[in-house]
Amino acid sequence: MTYDEAVRACSKLGEGWRLPTKEEMEEIYENKSKLGGFISPVFVSDNSEFFIDNNVYYWSSSSYGSSYVWVIGFTHKFVAITLKTGYLYTRAVKTIKL
Fold this sequence. Notes:
Number of helices: 3
Distance between the termini: 32 Å
Mean pLDDT: 82
Strand order of the largest sheet: 2-3-4
Low-confidence stretches: 43-52
Radius of gyration: 14 Å
Helix content: 10-25%
């Protein structure tokens, strides 16, 4: 889904749900084996992958200017910027007030 679709999808989950910041995404990456539920690359018989540069990317909420946003690759940790019009995966987080 696009960045705007991801923002809408998170807000539809209810109060407090949102896209994680770049820093939160990096922390999620570090704990991905404990959290689970991430998309895995698709392998074919020759072990090549169908994803660009062998990574599966997720949106963050951290913008880089008006047209770009930070993303993180979850197959191999890779933090980059991309246009908000691309199609990536989404992982929502919830703000909890204590």
